[in-house]
Amino acid sequence: MDEKIKRKRIMVVDDEPDLTLCYRLSLEYHEFEVETFNDSKKALSNFKQDYYDLVVLDIKMPNMDGFELYSEIQKIDSKAKVCFLTASEFYYKEFRKKGYNALEKDLFIRKPIENEKLVKEMDRLITRDVRNT
Known about the structure:
Radius of gyration: 14 Å
Shape: globular
CATH class: Alpha Beta
Number of strands: 5
Number of helices: 5
Order of helices and strands: EHEHEHEHEH
Helix content: 25-40%
Strand order of the largest sheet: 2-1-3-4-5
Low-confidence stretches: none
CATH architecture: 3-Layer(aba) Sandwich
CATH topology: Rossmann fold
Distance between the termini: 30 Å
Number of domains: 1
Mean pLDDT: 86
Structural class: alpha/beta
């Protein structure tokens, strides 16, 4: 890889260590730089403004769910690209009820997800035109 080309950085937050490991290995294999966290509060304390190309948040987590973590990240970096992992359509509907109507349905990725599809989704979301979010 050309040293001048920045590898795309992704933060993944999910309270299930086996999933974050699987996501990290798959994405790193495809040359993404990946930081994973199993605790949303620890992820927030390690979040860096203007650093990540994409932040991937599980919705249902203890202590601070993905919605709350998203809100806190937006306070630090309002331009951060974020998508959500969910096993249920219910959470997308709940999120819209909480006042996040600007977020589109394609920012919600259904779990479980195959590795190749995960990589394609990450690439799609990173290269997505910010004006469309």
